[in-house]
Amino acid sequence: MSENKNLNSVAALFDTPNKIINAAKKVKEAGYTKFDVNTPYPVHGMDKAMGLGQSKIGYVTLFFGFAGAIFIFLFMGWTMAINYPYIVGGKPLFPFQAFIPITFEVTVLCGSIATVVGMLAVFFNLPFLNHPIHDSNYIKEVSIDKFGVVIEAQDPIFERDKVTEFLKSLGGEKIEYINEPEKEEFKILQPKFILFLVVVAALTSFGTFITLNKLMYVVPFNWMDNQRKSNPQSETNFFYDGYAMRTPVVGTVAKEFMPYPYQGQAQPEVPLANPTLPTEQLLKMGQEKFLTFCSPCHGNYAQGVSRLKGQFPPGPTLHSAKIIGYSDGMIYNIITNGQNAMPSYAYQIPREQRWAIIDYIRVLQRAQNPNPSDFQAIKELNKESGKNAVN
Amino acid sequence: MNIDYTKELALVEGNPRLADIDEIITRPLTQPPTRKYYIALSISSTALLIGAYSLWLTLYYGIGMWGNNIPVGWAFDITNFVFWIGIGHAGTLISAILFLLRQRWRTGIARFAEGMTIFAVMTAGIFPVIHTGRPWLAGYLIPYPNQHLLWPNFVSPLLWDVFAVSTYFTVSLMFWYMGLIPDFAILRDQTVNKIKKTIYSFFSLGWRHSNRHWRHYEKTYMIMAGLATPLVLSVHTIVSFDFAVSLIPGWHTTIFPPYFVAGAIYSGFAMVMTVLILVRKVFDMENIITLNHLERMAKVMLLTGSLVAYSYLMEFFIAWYSQIPAEQYDFWARVVGPYRWAWYFMISCNALIPQLIWFKKIRRSVTVLFIISICANIGMWFERFVIIVQSLSRDYLPSSWHMFTPTLVDFGVLTGSFGLFFTLVLLFAKTMPVISIVETKSVLEGAQPTVHGGSDHE
Q1: Nearest CA in chain B to A40
Q2: Which of A191, A297, B184, B396 is a Cys-bridge partner for B203, taking CB atoms 3.0 to 4.6 Å apart?
């Protein structure tokens, strides 16, 4: 091994490309493995001379390119067909033809980023600024017009004097001994570094504060908050009375408005007939709306058990003989107009939903007073589904 | 001047030594800027300031500061975008496609053209973003899981554009930087200035000119060229989809992708030519950027210019052949309609003037080439103007026909785009080696060994 502990490598310079090719070949033949050739530009045939094989970097491109392609293709399909199904321009949910341009772009993007970053960071282990070879005379000459060979002290058959003689015999000039650089230490708790951290933290918080609290409220970033228009409840001098909000012209009819003949009447003479068929779908909707709108006061099964804990007069049971006797149109009238303490639900519940609720109330009532034939029907249903409980 | 075209020309004239190459190429970096340089920089930065002010007006008061109005919703903004993206294509073509075709003469101009690509794409990228009106919300174009639970529409050509342009920019930047690393290392090893040394060390990443690196490096360069080649073709194809996938008469044509790509290369080469002629004069690089380079670039312009002319004819033929009245009317309106002056500009600058390049005398006259290249730049801007504004102003419904009148702000933004581009070019020329030192050295006569390292080929 070497006599000088600090010696990193021995370097020699050559004048012409021909000489360096020969030198590289000879160094290789002499059995050195930890050596390198430094040239101002890639010299053709050098890989062969140094006994290096083909570069394997292409596999990195291949792998990451394909990975990117498959990922983005599936990702686009997932977003448009599964996560947020969305039909655009009459195309199917999974319009794979339209995914091709982006798939191609992402293939190129992933492939090239992986190749370049992989080459620099993984293959070359760069950045490597304190490599011993830097700042030597050797590299200064190499980067202009000389060609050089370095044999590292790490090489198993390295012997300083032998290597020197050997390089000289190949025609190498300006033999240079390159030493390991002195180890530099950077303490974490240096005052300068801490000051730097503090300044960065202060600037970041200040910048964030200004952005979120001030900048966002400045034109043009203020989400168009200040526009030349009148908002509800605001003043305007456009109208003679100064109000921005206008009442509709007399006789205006709202869109989809349907007049109700018994508006405000407690006892309609000829109540409306129920226009719906109690299909399963309709009953499901009725159940949902009943639970939403009616159950807080009348209870989940319309049995008159309020959840309002006395804050509002509880709604009576809807299983009374009176309500069973009411026609559908009468209940419709109660929902639409309200009755005494119960407010009108005409604005919250559209017409079909009111009828659906009434159908569902009928289901609840029937469940309290079933016909014998109902038991028979339930039994048969249970047989089919394999259950035996009556529930 | 008589040249024997059967012989391979020397790529670098005067056969300088390797050390001289460093000197010639890095001269602009080591010497203080000349008066000429300051004059050029002040012109370009004035233009940049005009653009910045116009942009501020646009952002503060809104897009209403521009002349755009329905039905002409796209006007100078998208015209400028397509124009600048097109300029960018020459750089990648020179650095990637000519590299794959083993055109070694590209060495003298590749780095510069790549730099121009990056600046042109940067300039271009501004326009689609500002034409949305509130560019600070452009982040929604990126598919990330946001609080609205919404994804961008992957079926829209406008989103394809986002991916194409950003990929193009990233890949060009990496390609360019990768070529610069060894050159930065050379600068690092030669400079004595401490600040410069720090900067160059930082950017050269500690490159050691090692052959164990060179072999991966060359392979990677080839792979990047291989990836960039289809990429550059795809970018303008996708830009043309912005139009071709819509239904406006004059836009909805299948010829658009190849037509746009040819136009892009044509305009890009024209811009490279314009800038290089200026640069080789200003920085005395006539030996490296030779007349032969200019002649070869002129030939590419002739080819692509003729392709563009062919596309113009083909568009008219298809309009007639399609038997669609709106389409026929639109093309007829280009010739005799209110925008005919733009069309005549376009035809004479893109289809007729480049035909002069057939003559060898003209190909080898720097002045004439300069004029032709300027014409081509103007012509290609008007081509995009004709396609966008003329087609939009005459769509299917005659009742919605409307003329577009640009405002001062429109011109300000256009001026600013040139200002940005040329300011960046000038700064680049002064701070980085505009010609690849490494590549130039490797193509000098006698730079490669006559003996081989035992390889079997040759």
Answers
A1: B209
A2: B184
